[in-house]
Amino acid sequence: MEDISSNPSTPLLTNKDENCPVTFCTKLWEENKMVWQIAGPSILVSIFQFSLAFVTQTLVGHLGTLELAAVGLQNLVVSGIGFGVLLGMGSAAETLCGQAYGAGKMRMLGIYLQRSWVILLGTTLLLTLIPIFATPLLLLLGQNRDIAELAGTYSIWMIPELFMYALGFPMQRFLQAQSKVWAMTWISLGVLVFHIPLSWFCIIKWGLAGAAGSLNLSWVVLVALHYAYIASDSCKDSWSGFSWLAFTDLLPFLWLSLASAVMLCLEYWVYMVLVVLAGLLKNAEIKVDAASICMNIEGWIFMIPLGFIAAVSVRVSNELGAGNAARAKFSVWVTVSIALVTQTAFALLILITRNSYPKLFTDDKNVMKEVSTLTWFLCGSILLGSIQPILSGMAVGAGWQGAVAYVNIATYYLIGFPIAIFMGFKLGWGLEGLWSGILIGIGLQTMVLLIMAWRTDWDNEIELSKERTSDAAGPDVQF
Question: How far apart are CA 43 and CA 350, in angstroms?
Fold first, then answer.
């Protein structure tokens, strides 16, 4: 069997393939393997890193309800804003590193990594204003004063985590572009194993301050281990040390980073807004509890699409960089198909157990009933989550962040949310109406991205990729 991964010039799908089921199935199987080789470890990385804050928040719950509420609020709102912005901006490195790797311009991967560091660290300096003024911000949002003040203090203690995001996200995209995902998996697992006893000890001994210290330290260790791996011989072709070229051509990189941040944040904050709007309904406590349970379930299940997002982004950017339009397009549809199958299985499992699984989260019968009712909407989100995130990953791989940002503004915030508010409040459909409007927005965005993928001139995308990765900066100058 021919190894297509070692021969980029081999077309993945031709007219001959379409008339030859054996050849087509072989190509399908090969692409499926390449997707899972990236997606599998990426899913584990997402779970392990997501678990760091989850472990800390769970252990803080033993300190008291006030501390738990403060940490939860900081994690959802204050840290959530910084996390979304920096994760989004980091995907610019994902686009450029992936396309440079596909084009064989290994030297440029290290340059793109350093440019991303420069831009994200500068952004983080501005983002520190959010935790510094977290208390008045939370009070402005109508939060309880005691919770807001404690959350504000905890937010200031967690400022180092923001800087670790700024350093860590570009390194992960740098390694991901080269399909070095197993290294990230083992590093993330090791840090999680280190974090669990460390967090328990620090919280028992120093309370909330210990929670902040242990979580910050774990992120520092995570970033340090990633850098140690990059600086080792494992990445000798793509990392040759620090260079002054990191400070050149920053404006195009900044624009792509900002477009990436807008694109991702508009998606990332959709369900956060849903929970906020749920708090304005009658019986708000029940509605918010039910919505939070559903969001918790969807958050864990979304770890699976996150792996597929990474896979399709790497595959598309690599193939565009290598000049293989057919392979890039084929990879998108294969990844969408895989994600649709896996997410459908999860949706069916939740639907079948809709009267049972709420008992895992609450003893309140009213909340359990509300969660069971919302299960249909949760399953709708999960099914759409099998297509929409993959198409967003395709957009990152192709460098379409700016265009998708406009699509998100139109579908989510100009169409979806007005419909949600009309159904939820004007028609009196409550949380079901709010969620219906959001699903309409996500469905419209998915349809637009499908049309974009279908109508795209992939040969033209190859030319755009060549322009992005052209190294016109001149000879390299090391620090």
Answer: 20
Contact assessment for residue 146 and residue 7, using Cβ atoms and an 8 Å cutoff: no
pLDDT tens-digit map of 218-227: 999 999 999 9
Residue for token pair 């779970």: 47
Structure tokens at 299: 């958050």
Identify the bridge partners of residue 478 per DSSP, sorted by sequence position.
243
Q: What is the chain's Cα-based Rg?
A: 23
The total of other beta-carbon atoms located within 10 Å of residue 136's CB is: 11
Count CB-CB contacts under 10 A for residue 2. 10
pTM summary value: 0.82
- CA–CA separation, 257 vs 253, rounded Å? 6
For the four alpha carbons of 204, 209, 215 and 219, in that order, the dihedral sign comes to negative
- Positive or negative: CA dihedral 196, 197, 199, 204: positive
* DSSP conformation class of 3: -
243 bridge partner residues: 478
Cβ contacts of 368 within 8 Å, gap of 6 or more:
358, 359, 362
Reading the block at residue 114, the tokens are: 């350093």
Residue 80 CB-density burial (10 A; 0-12 exposed, 13-18 middle, 19+ buried): middle
Contact 53, 61 (CB under 8 A): no
Tens of pLDDT, residues 198-251: 999 999 999 999 999 999 999 999 999 999 999 998 999 999 899 998 998 899
Angle (CA) 313 314 319, round 5°: 105
Q: Give the residue from 211, 222, 188, 396 showing the smallest Cα distance to 311.
A: 396
**Would you say 25 and 1 are in contact if contact means Cβ atoms under 8 Å apart?**
no
Tell me how far apart the alpha carbons of residues 167 and 174 are, in angstroms, rounded to a whole number.
11
Give the single-character DSSP code of 413: I
Dmax (CA) for the chain in angstroms is 69
Token pair of 25 as six digits: 């199935």
Per-position DSSP letters for 318-380, written without gaps between them? HHHHHT-HHHHHHHHHHHHHHHHHHHHHHHHHHHHTTTTGGGGT---HHHHHHHHHHHHHHHH
**CA distance linking residue 260 with residue 400, whole number of Å:** 9
Q: Which residue, 249, 262, 251, is CA-closest to 89?
A: 262
Q: Residue 105: how many CA atoms within 13 Å on its side-chain side?
A: 22
Q: Give the amino acid at 326.
A: A
Residue 243 corresponds to which amino acid?
A: S
